[in-house]
Give the backbone structure.
Amino acid sequence: MHLKDIPKIKYHDTNNFFLIAGPCAIENEEMAFEIAEKVCILSDKFKIPYIFKGSYRKANRSRGDSFTGIGDEKALEILKKIGQHFNVPVTTDIHTEPEAAIAAKYVDILQIPAFLCRQTSLLVAAATTGKIVNVKKGQFVSAGAMKHACDKVAAAGNDKIILTERGTMFGYQDLIVDYRSIPLMQKFGAMVVLDCTHSLQQPNQSVGVTGGNPSMIGTIAKAGIAVGADGLFIETHPKPQDALSDGANMLPLEQLEGLLEKLVKIRAAIV
């Protein structure tokens, strides 16, 4: 797969990394549009291919009373509006086979959550929509084993595959990034993304709310570009402390410009 295969993608000929960025979850239309507008301005400034990300539903929650969404159709309509208004590709995650066909009507890329990367029926359902499929590597899966996820999608007749590295379990409440995963997974013919925010999660907290270490996002991102990641995944929010989901590991929106400026320089130095 090539970057130019992504619908509506801009700057695919700049030899830059691409960026998947947005809030963890769609909280309301105003917030989603604020983030999309800011990141679009930055992507134009730095000539970075950009994909807007937002979860229309959060199915994987530690506690039963955690925020899960504002309603599927309402959130999906917001994603569709963003894609149309800013003329950018949009992605969201799905969790069950029926969701694949539903979400495919609204977005350009279907994301498979890390915990579900081995769920064959889900991978096949996503593949058969004809949409690009982004499979996040499970925290419990080796880079080499992700070839089987690629093979499942390809066997269903879809060769438009992205793989995302998002850290490996390191004890009960921490993750570690093995940067060897990036070139290893690129050998499968997929574009490989480094998730700079979920890689810094601190899961399984006793309070039932996942922690994080967002001060290290820049470190993770710079290292990812240096080893040749095709793209970066960064969740961002105007006020992470007030976010309804995963605020503990999101990048404050105001810090994104400075980080992208550094990353573009690193990319230019290695290509």
